[in-house]
Amino acid sequence: MEPTEKQHEVISSDGHLLVTGGPGSGKTTISILKAAQIADYNLRPQQKVLFLSFARATIARVIEAIEEEKSISDNIKRHIEVETYHSFFWRILKAHGYLLGLPRKLDILTPPEEAIALSSTRSQFEPDSKLSDEKKKEKKDAENAERCRLAADEGRVCFDLFAPFVSSLLHSSQRLRQLLATMHPAVVLDEFQDTNAEQWNVVQALGRYSRLIALADPEQRIFDFIGADPDRLDHFRKAFTPTEIDFSDTNHRSAGTDIAKFGNAILKGTFDQENYEGIEVKYFDSNPNQAFTTLITSTYAARKRLAKSGKQDWSLAILVPTKKMTRLVSDKFRAPPAGMPAINHTAMIEMAAAILGSGIIAHILQPDSASRLDTFISLMCSYYQGKGGDKPTKTALDEAARIRKAYDKWCSAINSGKKPPGKSILHATFEVYDTACAKLRTGEPNQDWQTVRAVLENGKCKRLTEIAKEVRNIRLLERGTQLREDLTQDWRDNGSYANASLIVQQAFVQEHFASSAKPETGVVVMNMHKAKGKQFDEVIIFEGWPNISRLKIVANLDRIVRFNDRTKVDASCRQNFRVSITRGRQRTTILTPEVDPCVLLIPEQ
Ligand SMILES: Nc1ncnc2c1ncn2[C@@H]1O[C@H](COP(=O)(O)OP(=O)(O)OP(=O)(O)O)[C@@H](O)[C@H]1O
């Protein structure tokens, strides 16, 4: 790769830097070379350049890019540390959190665990849609108070508290700031436009003694809802007077195509070309059959093109507007209509439910313990309390309460020497549970896991069936994964999965921090929001369609723009669409319903 003139400017600049540019303009690539240059000339043996990003997906891409960069020696590579904000913050908190009065031993409260821990606080309020602004604030404060209590009293710290805690630590201790600067004299801040207030506080403290290199595309700011500030770049300019280098619209990712141009047209709402090379818009009839058939045939065609190109590890992303669509597409790919062949794929779904469900399978794999049934019921309740993440539904919370109540009744009947109530919902549950527990184990974790999962899925208890279906989405047991190795070792050490529950729990924490995950290859289905920072050889964007009755649209869900209503168009939905479009290297295909095409594709008057 021959760096452009602007990229050379980055290499030759000193001091704080602000590098801006559109998607695929080469910001990440040059920042890696810059980090290598600093590591080569300015670092002492123990020091490292720190590369911080929000998403593990970006980390995976950056690590891969560093590894593949032939001009950087192995020795220099060792001096570049690539981390998520989360894992960097956690490193600081574990070592120095006690300075804030936190317990010496800290544990991470993972999002599903946090959802469980906060469920009773949340259940005291009506659903968000029914809350006044004042009540919403009250709810938020109550949640925060509980989070802080969990951290201070129990040493269980949720992700949302990482940045505020680290910020307090750094702002109150000059020694700590100096220590970090000694470890990391230069820090690269990827996707700087998305930095929220708490993270910005940390960055300000880091910048006192370390050199900062911020990479940003102001137009890619799609995280408004988590507090990213449109003025953040100005804050940086004011605080650090950086040298600014703007790559503007240069586009290396999809060079030779008009994909980036089309992305900009979407942003502006005006199209100055009839056709855009590399962009195809296809229309489908507004019914599930036609919609999915169009998606599936487009996916076959893209897959064929990519296989034919001879490229190994090709990637094809199917990007959809909602979580619900991610699931629907994944289900349809597994079992397409009209006998069409299935499409092998990975779906990136919200993991809370799958993680909690895995806890239940792990518990079943683990041999008997005295309070086994109590634990099992607690895990079932936790599943329903936590499966909705930070937005639990009332139905799920009620379900948890129903299970708890049924179990209390069950126990009091047994304790007074009676039979459990004949109509208890737990009869079916315990029957399936006992069958799963009784299955022989082979010591091959994947097989044993699947056996238990199958019993739950095919049994008579609809709750366990649901849980087993969720767990199907977990791919942590594939060959070579830590979870599989740890379970195998557990079996070797104990002749049973004596520590299965603990191992599964740790695996998810590790998974959250793992930086070794490779960028996705093959066919991947995900929510459009999740595509940020990634790139794929081809992208297919597939949205929902209107439900029409008597020539009128009666429902219009899962659209790129809410209800596909022009009055709902704002900068953030344009940016979101543009980010998705510009993830494609060679081609981006957009599938939209013919009767009511995505309004962003229609020029503004
Ligand atoms: N000077 C160059 N010549 C050729 N290819 C380049 C050049 N600079 C970067 N690339 C390639 O272009 C692609 C996109 O680059 P990169 O990921 O650095 O862009 P980016 O600005 O960080 O993008 P985004 O903000 O959209 O994530 C990469 O595959 C990279 O290898």
Automatic annotation (TrEMBL):
Residues 1-11, 125-144 have a biased composition (Basic and acidic residues). GO terms for biological process: recombinational repair. ATP binds at residues 21-28. PROSITE patterns: UVRD_HELICASE_ATP_BIND. Residues 1-22, 119-144 are annotated as: Disordered. One of its GO terms (molecular function) is ATP binding. This is DNA 3'-5' helicase II. Residues 1-255 form the UvrD-like helicase ATP-binding domain. Keywords: ATP-binding, Helicase, Hydrolase, Nucleotide-binding. It comes from Thalassospira tepidiphila MCCC 1A03514.
